[in-house]
Amino acid sequence: MPIKTLHIPTADGRADAFAAFPDDCPGGGGRHPGVLMYPDGFGIRPVLREMAAELAGHGYYVLVPNFFYRHGPTPVIDLPAYIGGEDRSAVLDLLMPLIQEHTAERTLRDADAFLRFLTTRPEVAAGPVAVTGYCFGGLLAVRTAAAHPGRVAALAAFHAPVGADGPDALAGITAQAHFGHAESDLTPEALRELNKALDAAGVDHSSEIYPGTVHGFTMSDTDAFDRAGLRRHWDRLLPLLGRTLAGG
């Protein structure tokens, strides 16, 4: 799949990003449903390009922004090729201050810019889009969908702190949603409480713990990777997009 580096104007500067899209887009007049994909906290790197290209191969234009752009372009911090053990701890020590500075207000300002950019690309079909995200990016996806109920038709978040902003923050979501949780992140009791909050907010959703997984299970460049968990992620994400985005 073609991959193109882009820059997105925002209220606070310019965010670097990339897009993956089907072969018929460049110069060929092809238009495809748009997907805004938020990376995990480790940010844009080869595994995210692989995942975006995989999704693009199913007929979507996938935009992946660097949401830490206020701290510099990708790579915001140096990452090892494989994130595990002591390297993981060292990377998290660098990332946590950036995550803590990335408030809900920043998320919403950026979401306005990211969605405006995505929906005005000539390669993107008219109509609503999907938002998906991983880890901290999953929380950003939830915030984005809640703030833009008329523009976001599908929401997916994986190993993400979905309820971190409290139950009231879920109330604006009108998108069909799927939440795939790591077994290490959520007990069955906590899952039941989250699903009660989603039901109370009127969110049309599926929400499940992926057996045998730990936080970060979708990312093949980390020691959390679980091949079965990644496959289950695709098995849930692709039908969701197919149901909600015309032409996907």
Description:
It is a single chain. By secondary structure, the chain is α/β, with parallel strands linked by helices. It has helices spanning 46-56, 85-101, 104-119, 136-147, 188-200, 227-244, and strands at residues 3-10, 13-20, 34-38, 61-65, 129-134, 152-158, 176-182, 205-210. An eight-stranded mixed β-sheet has the order 1-2-4-3-5-6-7-8, with helices on both faces. Strand 5 (129-134), helix 4 (136-147) and strand 6 (152-158) form a beta-alpha-beta unit. The longest helix has 18 residues, at 227-244.
| Poorly predicted residue ranges | none
Using the alpha-carbon principal axes, give the shape: globular
Counting helices, strands and paired strands, the structural category is: alpha/beta
- Mean of pLDDT: 95
Oligomer: single chain
| Biggest β-sheet description | 8 strands, mixed
DSSP helix count?
6
Task: Quickly describe the structure.
This protein has 6 helices and 8 strands; from the N terminus they run E-E-E-H-E-H-H-E-H-E-E-H-E-H.
